[in-house]
Amino acid sequence: MPSRAEPAVRDTAAVALRGVSLAYGRGARAVQALSGIDASFAPGAFVTLVGPSGCGKSTLLRLVAGFAAPTGGTVSTGGSPVRGPGPDRGVVFQQPRLFPWMSVRGNVEFGPRMAGLGKAARRARADELLELVGLGDAAGRRPYELSGGMQQRAAIARALAPDPSILLMDEPFAALDALTRERLQEELRRIWQTTGKTVLFVTHSVDEAVYLGTRIVVLSKRPGRIVLDVPSELPHGADPRTDPGHQTLRETIAAAVREAAA
Ligand SMILES: Nc1ncnc2c1ncn2[C@@H]1O[C@H](COP(=O)(O)OP(=O)(O)OP(=O)(O)O)[C@@H](O)[C@H]1O
């Protein structure tokens, strides 16, 4: 008999977390990493996750990536429950993790190749992305011939290659020197504006969280809970590094992180 129930209303959030908790291990030795996380992020948002060390930022990202399953609650992307990694989500780690035996272009082509994209199409895609991340001239080089910042650009291009709608970034600039880091932050903002991806970005740095985020989420110390979740609206054309509203926001976030760590 056909169901008379109303069709389920599709969750239009890019990422939705409903009552999410995660414990590593079981019994007396279980480590409760996250507890009662509720949030949903709109398509195109740039969400920065900040909080004290060990509060579960990476764990949260791993749940959205599908590398781990929550022990409570649900995680969904684009209205569908996350059941594992998928091409709708690209991941960038702190270390670039490029294949050393492949050229930069080969690394970027890898995902599309696995997805069965033809040679000409995947090459065109790789070259377009390498241009986007400013590595147009380095396509034929091996990862070990690149600086750390260039390697991380290549990792971003590789993550974008399957055209995911969501980009998950786990402290991608933490291992870089200050100048390279600043440059890549600017580049990432430009890439985000150009591509319209939803970005979830984990960082230890309040400055980075405020500079990049259109929404800033602060987690408490373990078990991680959301203690602050604020939008960050920048007046058109303003520079977040000098905008007075952002200075105030930076102080608010820094205070929340200090309190969360106490
Ligand atoms: N595989 C694991 N087994 C047991 N405990 C784990 C495991 N992975 C992480 N943890 C613990 O879960 C908690 C959250 O870890 P997670 O790496 O998500 O935190 P984080 O906020 O990203 O930390 P950091 O800022 O230091 O990178 C920590 O207490 C950590 O020790």
Automatic annotation (TrEMBL):
<dbReference type="InterPro" id="IPR003439">
    <property type="entry name" value="ABC_transporter-like_ATP-bd"/>
</dbReference>
<protein>
    <submittedName>
        <fullName>ABC transporter ATP-binding protein</fullName>
    </submittedName>
</protein>
<dbReference type="GO" id="GO:0005524">
    <property type="term" value="F:ATP binding"/>
</dbReference>
<dbReference type="Pfam" id="PF00005">
    <property type="entry name" value="ABC_tran"/>
</dbReference>
<keyword id="KW-0547">Nucleotide-binding</keyword>
<dbReference type="InterPro" id="IPR050166">
    <property type="entry name" value="ABC_transporter_ATP-bind"/>
</dbReference>
<dbReference type="InterPro" id="IPR027417">
    <property type="entry name" value="P-loop_NTPase"/>
</dbReference>
<feature type="domain" description="ABC transporter">
    <location>
        <begin position="17"/>
        <end position="246"/>
    </location>
</feature>
<keyword id="KW-0813">Transport</keyword>
<keyword id="KW-0067">ATP-binding</keyword>
<dbReference type="InterPro" id="IPR003593">
    <property type="entry name" value="AAA+_ATPase"/>
</dbReference>
<dbReference type="InterPro" id="IPR017871">
    <property type="entry name" value="ABC_transporter-like_CS"/>
</dbReference>
